[in-house]
Amino acid sequence: MNLRNEVYKTLGFTYRNFIITKRNFFTLFETLFWPVIGLLSVGLMGAYLNLEENYLAFILIGAVTLSVLQVSQLDVAYVLLFDIWSKSLRYTFVTPISIFNMLFGAWLFGALRGFIAFLILLICSEFLFDLNLLIQPFGVLLFLFGIFLSAMIIGTLTCSLLLIFGYRAEVAAWTLTAIFMLLCGIYYPITLLPSGVREIAYMIPLTHFLEFYRSFYNFPASSDNPALMGFLLSFVLLFFLFLILIWALDRARRKGTITQFSE
Amino acid sequence: MHSIVCEDVWMVYRSMFSEKVALSGVDLKIPKNKIFGLLGPNGAGKTTLISLMATLLRQTKGRIEVLGYDAIKDLKEIRKRINIASGNPNLIWSLTVYENLRYYSLLYGLNDRKVVEQLIKEFELEEFRNVEFNRLSTGNKQKLILARAFVNDPELVFLDEPTKGLDPPVAKRLREKIQSLQKDLGITVVLTTHYMSEAEMLCDRIAFINRGKIVAEGTKEELKRMLKMRDKITIEVDAKVPEMKLDGVFMVERDGNLLSFYVDSAESRLWDLAKEVAKFGRIKNISVKEVDLEDVFNELAK
Question: Pick from A15, B61, B152, B284: most CB atoms within 10 A?
Answer without folding.
Answer: B152
